[in-house]
Amino acid sequence: MQSVSHVKVKRGMSLSALVREMEQVKVLGPGRFGKAAKILGEMFSDDDYCNFISLAGPIIPGGLRKLVTDLIDQKLIDAVVATGANVTHDMLEGLGHRHIVGSEMLDDAALRRRGLSRIYDLLVKQKAIVDLERTAHRMLNRIPEQKRRNIASYELLWEFGRQLTDRNSFLKTAEKRGVPIFCPGIFDSMLGLDLWTYSQLNQLIINPFKDFSKLVDMTFGAKLVGAVILGGGMPKHHVLVANSYRGGLDAAIQITLDRPEGGGASGAPLEEAISWGKIKSKDKLVTITGDAITIFPILTLAAMDIART
Amino acid sequence: MQSVSHVKVKRGMSLSALVREMEQVKVLGPGRFGKAAKILGEMFSDDDYCNFISLAGPIIPGGLRKLVTDLIDQKLIDAVVATGANVTHDMLEGLGHRHIVGSEMLDDAALRRRGLSRIYDLLVKQKAIVDLERTAHRMLNRIPEQKRRNIASYELLWEFGRQLTDRNSFLKTAEKRGVPIFCPGIFDSMLGLDLWTYSQLNQLIINPFKDFSKLVDMTFGAKLVGAVILGGGMPKHHVLVANSYRGGLDAAIQITLDRPEGGGASGAPLEEAISWGKIKSKDKLVTITGDAITIFPILTLAAMDIART
Amino acid sequence: MQSVSHVKVKRGMSLSALVREMEQVKVLGPGRFGKAAKILGEMFSDDDYCNFISLAGPIIPGGLRKLVTDLIDQKLIDAVVATGANVTHDMLEGLGHRHIVGSEMLDDAALRRRGLSRIYDLLVKQKAIVDLERTAHRMLNRIPEQKRRNIASYELLWEFGRQLTDRNSFLKTAEKRGVPIFCPGIFDSMLGLDLWTYSQLNQLIINPFKDFSKLVDMTFGAKLVGAVILGGGMPKHHVLVANSYRGGLDAAIQITLDRPEGGGASGAPLEEAISWGKIKSKDKLVTITGDAITIFPILTLAAMDIART
Amino acid sequence: MQSVSHVKVKRGMSLSALVREMEQVKVLGPGRFGKAAKILGEMFSDDDYCNFISLAGPIIPGGLRKLVTDLIDQKLIDAVVATGANVTHDMLEGLGHRHIVGSEMLDDAALRRRGLSRIYDLLVKQKAIVDLERTAHRMLNRIPEQKRRNIASYELLWEFGRQLTDRNSFLKTAEKRGVPIFCPGIFDSMLGLDLWTYSQLNQLIINPFKDFSKLVDMTFGAKLVGAVILGGGMPKHHVLVANSYRGGLDAAIQITLDRPEGGGASGAPLEEAISWGKIKSKDKLVTITGDAITIFPILTLAAMDIART
């Protein structure tokens, strides 16, 4: 029987030293956080890993846009599965618009009248969203009609990435690095509405089956596949399901505040995915109960330091 | 200043009488539950309402399949937005397979070896999933190739519904009643995998833009639009966003265990949607913090009784 | 292997009929709700049961004051373990003050200036709290000094109950019916502050050991002990721990939104208590993930109807 | 209108540098984490602060025992309000017993038979608990009977701390440093049972009013009072209420997974406490939605580095 160790915090110690202390706790939150850092460190340092990241919730508008971009740029992430909203908000910033500091206590009807829309305590100008429609249509016009007849979401997003000039854009960087961004729910977002309005007068058919073929090819081609699952939703499930054809993920980290009791996929513990053949074993798998936008940057810094050593 | 009332529970009283007591509390959970029952009662009794329901989490496998089917059959629900998983599980039962009572404490690797997959404390046989693939392919073959070239998800699901014989199927009943079932994430489910394997050797392009056009047409054509939002995810957001073109929903009820602090759409209070123009005002809108599969049948019974009086 | 059944909701059916349908689901939320109603029905109808209820969170101010009072009056509940806050709010209403309907979006500094204090969307006047201090001191003066030297919380609350005139008070009704109200955290409440100020100039020593002796005596004397655990906190733990001397509770229902991952007692599944000898077996034990103030009145009505049949 | 900044993570950067990046996000989780680190840094570096910490949930057994001990030893914490369980588990380790690494999936009836009790995925031997009773009684015998007639919990815990020899014990260190540990719910714990059994044959009256007088004196005497609130429960409320007499806390950080919608004090946002006069203003107050045992060591390291600069 193993004993629980206690964390020692010393002024000036490195984060990775603290995380090693946390790993030794072996139980509860500290144990899981320590294990997650170790798994992520391995995913970052072992070249055999093909690493997926799934983005649900306001990861991009909520402060992690540069971080995601840098991970792609450094080839620490090989594929992204994102909600339409995260793609939308990358494009908004890519066009020069900014997200605004608000409060969760603001009156929504008053915001509406002022032309502002709210995501918890963060605001977006409706003007920016109008500008996005205009620009998205212009960008679509530059894609050859032949290509628009049957395009995958990752191909479309590469086209958009190519046309953006903002180096902090994860769409742009992904295109530059050849990293696919899959967006199975692209239809269900502000950008999705712009694609739909475009499709009413122009040729545009987005074919998710093309995405899925690419996704499955990537997982088949890889020696090892790892996944960082931020939040739940379709991006989480999509990463898992794409790996079922190869017998499951080799390693996976999930950070979420969703809970399991309701039976939804978002809050399900990763262990459940073993019974579906989507993850191989429970050795390299951990769920952190927490806010992904808060935890992920800290975990990344720890894992980078672990990967280096 | 209004005072908080206290609930009186009497042996033998009707649920709707209790719910009226709860409404009078006006604060906290009871107040919100009472308000939700009243709004739902109005949606059920006022013919001007076009009612949407969104299904995320294991609503169909978790015991509410008949309930959803009956609401469609009685035309209390005019449109459904479902996850691919809920459609998948309706088809599984429609083909004669059953969901099995398990436990959340079972070992997932052992379940895998026994050919069982887990959703919290509910199990599915992998054999049933293999059977679904075969049957889905057979059903697809019966759809004219011309139609398969550019088909909406709701059209595809009507085709499947028509071919099912189980009267408890919500797909079948929806087809019979002309109620569209939108499935923006159909690709991301067990059934979605079957569609993808089919598309590798056969003509099949599912076009979500066709779905969205139908969806927007329905919201535009309606005098009033109401929504019952069970769980979060893409179905929730999709119902909201489809109503932004008409200036927002007139009434909406949400039941979810997701929380707002992370900023994700699933846990966001419905008030936030006002700032996006997706809901009209906060008068007819309420969020119940709870498990949708538990709360919704109770709320429905209360609302039916309220609607009758 | 048992199959999952589906709920049938029919206009005009009784709540207990619906709950029986839910019980047959056997999994997820409906299964747990159905099981809870059955257990509670048994606790209400079998005279061998000595029933405890624990109250944490705003049960009394939030609309369930009459319900708790009636359960005590009908001898369906034999002992209460409450937070100091629930006792405080019963006394406030017992003195004629009312809880006020507010909103969770109000500005707290502005409320402070207006003499109002907030519990989520419910308000209390500071004046009422000042009046409580004055009245509590007057009531304490009427208790013989000899008794005040070493008094249990349940004895003190019987003294207060005797002096209240409001028939809706659960303190008054408990005194009338000889039902003890244990308040292990009485010190930690508004009323607790009044007791402390009184003790600075007068004789008053509250001795929780006397409470615990009474509590253990009750559990020892009973053939069967059942518990309804609303929320977590000290009241939950106290009911559990008091039953460890007799080998554990025979039946227990818990309704809470707290979650287990952090390891706190409030969110722990009741199963954990088996390993501590505080509950006998998992046959008659169920946790409902939900809001206690919303769920409990519905569950009570269902259980009353089940108990009758 | 302020813009949201994006976090930059660089291999080898210090945690405090990362936290400054997070603070600049200003919204959602990263903004709150950054603000919390800044407030804690100020509480650690400004000698005018009298710092309270409240401990609810398995803080001590779950890996933070050394951390709490060190903070007391370095006089960064001036007073503790703990649950009885945290005191119990400090004594268990102080007597040489260890907490054991388990799993949340273990069968509780089987654990019971093996003499093990469970806290989520952490185990305790029942033998250790039996030993605690014997030792606690022996320690109590060494306290003069006169003192035992009317003793505060903090006085009792200083007596225990003095008799412990383990330098990692926070009870021992607190006694050495003259830091009071208040335990308003000491009765409601394993140690509490031992105190009760002792009181059946020996003189022992624990008087929480004496604790509260000491607590209020400390808050009155301080220029500034800050609070670190780990988890909710009675310890949280007790720190808040004790500061109402001085017009409220000057700074406060809360880390919890409890949610506000049910209206319980544990999940309430700290803002609510402003309306009760328990916190002065919202400038130096922040709630982190997360697991306290995971977040607090990281926050402490960041704050120590901020305090140094």
Could you explain the architecture of this structure?
Four copies of one chain form a homotetramer. With 309 residues, chain A is α/β, with parallel strands linked by helices. The first copy, chain A, has helices at residues 15-25, 28-45, 60-73, 84-94, 108-113, 126-141, 145-148, 153-163, 170-177, 190-201, 208-221, 233-242, 271-275, 292-308, and strands at residues 49-55, 79-82, 100-101, 116-119, 122-125, 181-182, 224-230, 251-256, 285-289. Chain A has a six-stranded parallel beta sheet with strand order 6-2-1-7-8-9, sandwiched between helices. A three-stranded antiparallel beta sheet of chain A has the order 3-5-4. In chain A, strand 1, helix 3 and strand 2 form a beta-alpha-beta unit. In chain A, helix 1 packs across helix 2 (28-45). The longest helix of chain A has 18 residues, at 28-45. The two termini of chain A are 30 Å apart. Chains in contact: A-B, A-C, A-D, B-C, B-D, C-D. Chain B binds chain D through residues 28-29, 105, 107, 259, 261-263, 289, and chain D through 28-29, 105, 107, 259, 261-263, 289.
